[in-house]
Write a structure and sequence with these properties.
By secondary structure, this protein is α+β, with helices and mostly antiparallel strands. Helix content is 36%, strand content 28%. The chain contains 2 helices and 7 strands; from the N terminus they run αββββαβββ.
């Protein structure tokens, strides 16, 4: 009987140690890695502290001069130029989500070579205004054929 009690005690002790290690791994290591991922995502975010709900105006300028302007009226965007019209909510939401969730993979260090990336004469310019009146212009350069991403920068940075 003593051998059975010793065996049961060893098994119980092993279970307690296993549970303690599992709790440590979850609450310390896993939570720490989640915080690091969130911090890294925040660092790569291009448009900081801006929610798509705060955007009240969009102006999309193509390099050939064609321009589309959209204004928010009653929580819904409407095309105001070149014609007045309703918008496709899914298309506008895609644009707003792209602006809000835009991530940077690298930063330009050599400003003299911006022309190599199509940023001195951008193929597309997206201007947006927030509800607080601040306006930003996002310049879109050429597409990187290697990974399918575009070179972009804010006009003032």
């Amino acid at each position: 009987m003593k051998d059975f009690q010793k065996s049961l005690l060893k098994t119980g002790l092993a279970i307690i140690i296993f549970v303690a290690l599992g709790l440590y791994a979850y609450f310390v290591e896993y939570k720490k890695s989640q915080e690091e991922v969130a911090k890294k995502e925040e660092e790569t975010k291009v448009v900081k502290d801006t929610k798509k709900e705060e955007i009240t105006y969009l102006k999309i300028i193509h390099k050939d001069g064609k321009t589309i302007e959209l204004s928010k009226e009653n929580d819904q965007f409407k095309i105001t130029s070149p014609i007045s019209s309703e918008t496709d909510k899914n298309v506008v939401d895609t644009i707003l989500n792209t602006i809000e969730n835009l991530r940077s993979t690298t930063k330009f260090m050599d400003k003299e070579r911006l022309s190599n990336y199509g940023l001195t004469n951008p193929s597309l310019t997206i201007e947006y205004r927030l509800s607080n009146g601040n306006t930003k212009r996002l310049l879109c350069g050429i597409r990187n054929d290697f990974d399918g991403k575009y070179y972009m920068k804010f006009e003032d940075s």
